[in-house]
Amino acid sequence: MTTTAPASRRGAAAARQDGGKGLTFLRAVHAEWLKLTSLRSSYIILTISLVCMVGVGLLSTFALTAMVSGFIAIDAEQGGAGQQSLVDEFGIMAREVPAAGTVIAQFLVASLAVMQIGSEYGTRMITTTLIAVPRRITAVLAKTLVIAGSAFAVGVVGALISYAVAQPLLEPHGLNYPLIADGVIRGIISAGAYLALIAVLGLSIGALLRNSAGGIVTILGILTILPILVAILSGLNDSFKDLGLFLPTSAGMDMVAIRTAQDHLTQVQGGLVVLAWAAVALAGALVTVKRRDA
Amino acid sequence: MIEAYGLTKTYGKRTAVDGVTFTVQPGQVTGFLGPNGAGKSTTMRLILGLDRPTSGRVLVNGRPYVEHAAPLREVGALLDAKALHPARSAVKHLSVLAATHGISRNRVDEVMAMTGITEIARKRIKGFSLGMGQRLGIAAALLGDPRTVIFDEPVNGLDPEGVQWVRNLSRHLASEGRAVFLSSHLMSEMAQTADHLIVIGRGRIIADAPVAEILAQGRDRSLVRSDQLDELRAGLAAGGIAFRELEPGLLEVSGAEPRKIAWIAREHDALIHELTPVRASLEEAYMELTRDEVEYRSAALAGAGEGTR
């Protein structure tokens, strides 16, 4: 160890060539992807979400075919006059099968999204994250993109599998349909988009509350308890009925629907409402995380 | 290199860091010393942009940490060895951090080898001992081959071998021209590792000087035993030399070198049968410096005895 200071500094400079290429948004996204995929819990929750998508799709297919047999039997007794319109009606319901699972999968996706950042605060990993990615907007957006992308994939893949497994069951009733049938692809993509937006909402709430348990209770409250509350209130006053349409669950149902009810939002309106929920929450989370001490 | 200018951080009414100004130079180990709660960790969080200063600013290698294009290349930091997800394996944890900067898998293996955690790389962090966690934290800090290294209480929880290792590593990193900034509440540790010391107490800088200089500030004293204490006391008092009686027959004399004490004893016919010079240890110099700055002090034992005991 007789190297002079300048020589050893040159040594350090040489060693420094493997210090990486610098922080970018895409690299932050890659890191967040590794975080998600290096935890068993992520796989478990995403797999269960997928199973729920397909399971609920199957259940609603069974329910539909049972209903169809019943109605057609009654209709036949009455002379078979209404058969064609009934088949049309059931056809629409059949096309709603692929996205049906979002009703349940949203809870899992929302919880996973909350945990994605809540657990970092819980384990103080957030300190390490923000040392590596001190640009906080980058850090939060990278997380958002990864969880939203995963949720979108679960929604789309789940809906596609639901579509595929439903067809053979629908066929005996003449209710099977091609993927390119009216609204089917839009419904499948909307299922993914809805889950992605719910994930953004969940992650934002997790970031705001910095706590997994509190965040999950809050997001599940928004998704399940708020609609019940509004339903009770709308019994008292009609104006609450309209308010209910703007809750994420109701707007999400309209968003993924093949045909929405007359007094409900259209698919596009529903999508915009859910988007607004996600965007406002994310903006709040970004501003808060940026300003607050880590 | 770290430059802090008038850095202040208040949490509500409590001022954790109170207008500190200091520089951490490259090529040497700078010890950041202070009692618990003195503001060491807060200062480090301010350096890394984790907390926002109430006023003042701090630059790392010439810029606020957040503004660097490759932050991990500039600063490697170990603030909290437990700041990681316990369900991840060590190698995954490091890979995640490496990914943020496009650092190669080779480098991940390299820092694991450097810190001796290669064998447990695939184990979940959950089962790590405190020492292993600390090594993983240091591995993470070294990933980007940073120009400045910040370790908060790096030897906490390490066994003697680990302590030695951190010491050698710190010295080695500084010898490569990096700025090494270590915090500790243990002066003895710093005495062996640091070139320069910044002492902080209640959020203020108490001392900022080379270790040798801080040592020199400590009072030199001598222990003197004599059979003619009265004569000796009179002589010392006449010479204006401070002393106190530690026990019957034993004086602690400060501010006079042994030769002078011996002369005084001779002039006053006092027989000395012990004259021991006591070099101030860094520990004592530190206690002296921080005496008024300790946030939670143990009550004097004598005073405590008055109560229920």
List keywords for this structure.
heterodimer; A: 294 residues; mainly alpha; 12 helices; 79% helix; elongated; B: 309 residues; alpha/beta; Rossmann fold; Alpha-Beta Plaits; 2 domains; four-stranded antiparallel β-sheet; 13 strands; 36% helix; disordered C terminus
Characterise this structure.
The complex is a heterodimer of chains A (294) and B (309). With 294 residues, chain A is mainly α. Chain A contains twelve helices and no strands. Chain A has a domain at 24-49 and 102-165 and 178-291. Chain A has helices spanning 5-15, 25-37, 40-77, 83-95, 102-123, 125-132, 136-170, 184-209, 212-236, 239-245, 248-256, 267-291. In chain A, helix 5 packs antiparallel against helix 7, helix 5 (102-123) crosses helix 9 (212-236) and helix 7 (136-170) runs antiparallel to helix 12 (267-291). The two termini of chain A are 42 Å apart. The model of chain A is unreliable at 1-15 (pLDDT under 50). Chain B folds into two domains: 2-216, Rossmann fold, CATH 3.40.50; 219-279, Alpha-Beta Plaits (2-Layer Sandwich), CATH 3.30.70. In chain B, 36% of the residues lie in helices and 27% in strands. In chain B, helix 3 crosses helix 4 and helix 9 (229-238) crosses helix 10 (258-267). With 309 residues, chain B is of the alpha/beta class. In chain B, the strands form three sheets. Chain B has a six-stranded mixed beta sheet, with helices on both faces. In chain B, strands 11-12-10-13 form a four-stranded antiparallel beta sheet, with helices on one face. At the A-B interface, helix 1, helix 2, helix 5 and helix 6 of A face helix 2, helix 3 and helix 4 of B.
CATH topology label of the largest domain in chain B: Rossmann fold
- How far apart the termini of chain A lie comes to 42 Å
Number of helices of chain A: 12
How many separate helices of chain B? 12
Content of β-strand of chain A: under 5%
Shape of chain A: elongated
Kindly provide the name of the CATH class of the largest domain in chain B: Alpha Beta
CATH architecture of the largest domain in chain B: 3-Layer(aba) Sandwich
Integer tally of domains of chain B: 2
Which pair of protein chains has the largest interface, and what are the residue counts? A-B, 41 and 51 residues
State the CATH superfamily name of the largest domain in chain B.
Answer: P-loop containing nucleotide triphosphate hydrolases
The protein's oligomeric status is heterodimer
Return the average pLDDT of chain A rounded to an integer. 90
Mean pLDDT value of chain B: 87
Q: Segments of chain A where pLDDT lies below 50 for 5+ residues?
A: 1-15
Low-confidence stretches of chain B: 302-309
**Radius of gyration of CA atoms of chain B, rounded to a whole number:** 24 Å
Tell how many strands the DSSP assignment of chain B holds: 13
User: What strand line-up does the widest sheet of chain B have?
Assistant: 5-6-7-3-8-9
